[in-house]
Amino acid sequence: MQIHVVVAPVFATSCCVVVEGDDCVVVDAGAGVAAQVALLVQEHGWTVRAVLATHGHVDHTWDAAELCERYDVPLRVHAADAYRVADPFGTLGLDPALPGVGGALRQALAGMGLRPEDYRAPAVVPFDAAGDDGAGTLVAGDVRLRVQHAPGHTEGSTLFLTDEVVLAGDVLFAGSVGRTDLPGGDPATMRATLHDVVARLDPALAVVPGHGPTTTVGQELATNPFLG
């Protein structure tokens, strides 16, 4: 299995193209990644089997509709976050015209000639902890990813795992963890996720966070102050 990372120009979201054989899935299609992802897919002759999101925040889903339509596939997101996809700004409680997260997002989008009203919602096929096979695995062509519900940043935040890598979304970063002060975030739930889910992962796993540099589970267990 291969993982190719395309960094979105808005909020530097890490979009991952996960490849098995000739099939692939796209994880976290942030704003501005669609053209680069499409070029990568075309160059290698891959077949896109699904677009996935680690959670429903708009910086992880902005280009999902474009890619879903291009490849005639759905967006897969945890059922607890599916409601966010249709109205990402409203479900965040953001007025994108005001300062703060909303204003920063508007400014980042404006730098690319985009506006919040340009957002299009893709068709969604939600999943839950049972995955597609009843045993916690999402299946998309030849690509199989284990899913681990990891709420706290949002209600439906999810880790996607291979034998060697965890795609952590905004649950775990190098030296930090996801914020819990936006609607749907919960500090107590995040602490439980870090203790009961993240701390029990194989320390040898590489971590590709939703933003920022890669790390390993072992490195974060040893040095991340939120995992002490």
TrEMBL record:
This is MBL fold metallo-hydrolase. Pfam families: Lactamase_B. Its cofactor is Zn(2+). InterPro entries: MBL_Glyoxalase_II (IPR051453), Metallo-B-lactamas (IPR001279), RibonucZ/Hydroxyglut_hydro (IPR036866). Gene3D superfamilies: Ribonuclease Z/Hydroxyacylglutathione hydrolase-like (3.60.15.10). Residues 12-211 form the Metallo-beta-lactamase domain. GO terms for molecular function: hydrolase activity; metal ion binding. Coiled coil: none annotated. The keyword Metal-binding applies. Keywords: Hydrolase, Metal-binding, Zinc. It comes from Xylanimonas oleitrophica.
